[in-house]
Amino acid sequence: MDLTTLERLPLWIGGKAVAANTTRYGDVTNPATGEVIRHVPFASAADVDRAVQAAREALPAWRSAPSLRRARVLMRFRELLDAHRKDLSRLITQEHGKTLVDAEGEVTRGMEVVEFAMGIPHLQKGEHSENVGTGVDAYSIRQPVGVCVGITPFNFPAMVPMWMFPVALACGNTFVLKPSERDPTTALRLAELLQEAGLPDGVFNVVHGDREAVDALLVHPDVKAISFVGSTPIARHVYETGTQHGKRVQALGGAKNHAIVMPDADLPFAVEAIVGAGYGSAGERCMAIATVVAVGEVGDRLVAALAERARRVSTGNGTTDVEMGPVITRAARERIVGLIDRGCEEGARIVVDGRRIRVAGHENGFFVGPTLFDRVEPGHTIYREEIFGPVLGVVRVDSLEEAIALVNRNPYANGVALFTRSGHAARRFQEEIEVGMVGINVPIPVPMAFYSFGGWRSSLFGDLHVHGMDGVRFYTRGKAVTARWPDDGSAAPGFHMPLMG
Ligand code: NAD
């Protein structure tokens, strides 16, 4: 199937592309040109039910397949991802707008989760104790939970789904993915590659859609676990509705990440790191730096250096040799420009203004240039709201203590970074900062696949983070077995509470 020229995208159910049973469709645009390139169906509750039933039917055989067999499918999938990394990256850039290099980076980070999940025969092992009582053994096993669902955002159309389904499938679950309707095609390519890798039909399914499809998944009686990544209001909705309907839910929400710069930091290093982390992927990363906290006398030097570097960021079509592409939609562009207007009105000082950027030959593209504010205050809208665009704001404070208190008061707590040469300051920061992912001279501290990814406070609802061992725990249920094999004539347990030993 040539997915790149399809007018109306299909769903992927039971191992094949099928038309949605809907009259509602959305536009998928190329953000660099503004052109509508295909249409995405908004699946109905009946479509969702078809996908869940396919996953339910495929479950018994898949969950009882030896874990090595499941791992081998993932090994072949990993090889196919590697072989197709260029065409996957082109598809991501076409629908999302990020640069090709960045798109390839997200495919690689997704592949690393597949590599982690390939170790499932070891990861899913339980524990065993011999003779917990006389002739009694005890052991624990971790079993798959059943049909699992992934609901994912537009900003990582390959990586975020791959935070979820490789681990879920490895553990013996079947899966329904509801990718973002703004860049939906990569999910279908991943489905095709999984099939080519030997995944049995129905184990992995894709439904496209909006709230109607999501809400149908949240209440479907055969869905057992839901992983969500997206904005905080929707994460809260997914968590509350899903848990009210008896499902296990992890819902990762929005972010507003701070980078604290100490007076002793290596300034050129910190500036390059912050500019890349603030403007890379046009600021559309949940781990992007949004706020720079300048401590003490570093403020003026830092703002001057950030401004100088921000003005040199090359912006254009992600298929060309640029550092930054467009934002996802015209509506996103308008929202970001509106928030920059608001920052100016509320008294922050605009130092670099990206509102009027023009990219030659791409007059209809959704571009916002790198924007830098100084003298941002915690009460300003641009400090409080997640902008999700290429906008950095500098807040000035007098001490590390004040910087830590500022970060700890923020409702979001996804990522944070400190730039310093002082081990003492770094250690104090690591201990006192109340944020899920912490970087020390590392601007975007995204944990590797074998650790787990997740924020605190309004950046995550639920207990377990994604991928790594938390992923294995999320996609399995623990069971503890106590067993004895009595000889004929052994005394049977009595009425009292059984005591071992
Ligand atoms: P979004 O919340 O608009 O959409 C996420 C998913 O929810 C999509 O699949 C979408 O179709 C669905 N959805 C949208 N509106 C819905 C509704 N009313 N009811 C039910 N479902 C709905 O997010 P987005 O704009 O695609 O992505 C950007 C957001 O995701 C940012 O807030 C970003 O911080 C966040 N994000 C967080 C992480 C993280 O790990 N914490 C990672 C990536 C992105």
CATH superfamily of the largest domain: Aldehyde Dehydrogenase, Chain A, domain 1
Q: Mind describing the biggest β-sheet?
A: 7 strands, mixed
CATH-defined fold name of the largest domain: Aldehyde Dehydrogenase, Chain A, domain 1
Task: Record the strand order, biggest sheet.
Answer: 14-15-16-13-12-18-19
CATH class placement of the largest domain? Alpha Beta
- Report the span from N to C terminus: 64 Å
Percent range for helical residues? 25-40%
How large is the count of helical segments? 16
Essential attributes:
single chain; 501 residues; alpha/beta; Aldehyde Dehydrogenase, Chain A, domain 1; Aldehyde Dehydrogenase, Chain A, domain 2; seven-stranded mixed β-sheet; six-stranded mixed β-sheet; binds nicotinamide-adenine-dinucleotide
Description of the structure:
The protein folds into 2 domains: 273 residues, 3-Layer(aba) Sandwich (Aldehyde Dehydrogenase, Chain A, domain 1), CATH 3.40.605; 184 residues, Aldehyde Dehydrogenase, Chain A, domain 2 (3-Layer(aba) Sandwich). Helix content is 38%, strand content 22%. It is built from 16 helices and 22 strands. Strands 14-15-16-13-12-18-19 form a 7-stranded mixed β-sheet, sandwiched between helices. Helix 1 packs across helix 8, helix 2 crosses helix 7 and helix 4 runs parallel beside helix 6. The radius of gyration is 25 Å and the shape is globular. The mean pLDDT is 97. The structure holds nicotinamide-adenine-dinucleotide. Nicotinamide-adenine-dinucleotide binds next to helix 8 and helix 9. Nicotinamide-adenine-dinucleotide (NAD) binds next to helix 8 and helix 9.
